Amino acid sequence: MGSGGHGGLWGIWGGYGVRGIWGGFFGFVLLALLLLPMYYIPAGGFSANPRGVLEDAPDAFCQLGRRPLISLALLATVASIAFFNFAGLSVTKELSATTRTVLDSLRTLAVWVCSLLLGWESFHALQLVGFGVLLAGTGLYNGLHRALGPCARPGGAAERQGLLQGEQGGVNGES
Hints:
The chain has 8 helices and no strands. It is extended. By secondary structure, the protein is an all-alpha fold. Helix 5 (about 95-115) packs antiparallel against helix 6 (about 125-140). The longest helix has 27 residues, at about 70-95.
């Protein structure tokens, strides 16, 4: 089974699942290695851990062992990230990266609403403005302004033909 996509997990998902696994593994190794210098970098009043450093991994493992609720929260976080990444890869494969970006913005909204409902945050009207800026920026980047504008017209045969021939332009169709 080579890397040609003819067997195993690579063949099942067309490489998307395996790429996601390798990306996650790379991120895990990179962050684990970054814990070493962060254990020694003083953070002063910025840090809330007992040693006053950026990260105190041994203390974190002690807390995981002593408080089952923290372990449960960690497992729930890992499961939600795994589900989100699987769903994101599936959406990107089946629909588009633009759709994934919009759904990612909605995920931000869902996390914010949940934190408000659980009482973890207090509501500030400026947060709505910030979320509006986030959505407007996402829409602008993905060319939504052209589709909603007063001069918007459905793509003609030339546009569809360009897509079928595999023509590639810059961001938002600019060359």
